[in-house]
């Protein structure tokens, strides 16, 4: 919470609990088949998107101090249908939000009052090339699924590069959550570099 | 056809499609899933069965999403219970459609019981209890059918599956990417996490 500046605006958005860590500009694919979430998608696509609330057993276990509830406010950027006919959507995170309260909507999914917060990952950094960027570029090149989600890559933006690294590294979600709640850009950068470069 | 499969799933001869189906191939895929947790083979099975199941389920459920749920749940059970298939007792198609029939009956029963009560709290937990219900939501990730069974796989396979489906690298993938032994990557991760914890401690002490 200490790293975060809350803006004053409060807005109501559908909320979808998922074990997905997504920072601003991050993209992921979701499969939607439950009636209530199909409804949510139709509401979200004609409205202002929805919030993915990072939700995971490891985080639950770690809640000890009235931990901040935060989520990723996403917009639906692509619709598709899988081979099996299930709706697939690509969502892109536009900012992080603090979840102030949650209530039930008439449509059986939940709606949350949220305020968006500023996080380093949404500020664009100057064009810099770095080893982290080069290494990330290789990851994209080797992984078609991931590559397809990012037709445009901001590999010159050190914040963008670091955010994508945090999303894909194999670490527990409660640790990842710390990069929103506890750690600043420098700490996150040191962390990723120490994994990638020793 | 639809009623046939649901009411008499064991009567394989009633299937009009049976002469076009490559039964030995289906059998091989299912066994490969059972013995080696072979994702490729499962994908083949999925491609073969999912459209058929969906077509049948659509006849039973007016709601498209429920029909899809039948597909997902059936294939999820196929993955999980593949080892229970016994070649001597019948064809793969028979077995899969039996799995599907059971899923369908369960769902129909649930719908009967819930007619007026679809929004009740036991189906949709509200904020306080949300965090205890996370399992229920995992399945919206890519390739849901596999995810519900990931937790039951040995760790090495979990890593592969999660890495592929959850858009997150596995430790193995990271090791390969960095061209380092897995052990080195693991200890780097451990060290880096340790440092983070120390930093956090310093911040709040």
From TrEMBL, chain B:
CDD domains: Sigma70_r4
Keywords, alphabetical: DNA-binding, Sigma factor, Transcription, Transcription regulation
Keyword DNA-binding: yes
Family annotation (InterPro entries): RNA_pol_sigma-70-like (IPR039425), RNA_pol_sigma-70_dom (IPR014284), RNA_pol_sigma70_r2 (IPR007627), RNA_pol_sigma70_r4 (IPR007630), RNA_pol_sigma_r2 (IPR013325), RNA_pol_sigma_r3/r4-like (IPR013324), WH-like_DNA-bd_sf (IPR036388)
Domain called RNA polymerase sigma-70 region: residue spans: 49-110, 150-197
Presence of the UniProt keyword DNA-binding in the record: yes
Domain of life: Bacteria
GO terms (BP aspect): DNA-templated transcription initiation
Gene3D superfamilies: 1.10.1740.10, Winged helix-like DNA-binding domain superfamily/Winged helix DNA-binding domain (1.10.10.10)
Pfam families associated with the record: Sigma70_r2, Sigma70_r4
A GO MF label: sigma factor activity
Stored PANTHER family: RNA POLYMERASE ECF-TYPE SIGMA FACTO, RNA POLYMERASE SIGMA FACTOR SIGZ
Family label: Belongs to the sigma-70 factor family. ECF subfamily.
Listed name of the protein: Sigma-70 family RNA polymerase sigma factor
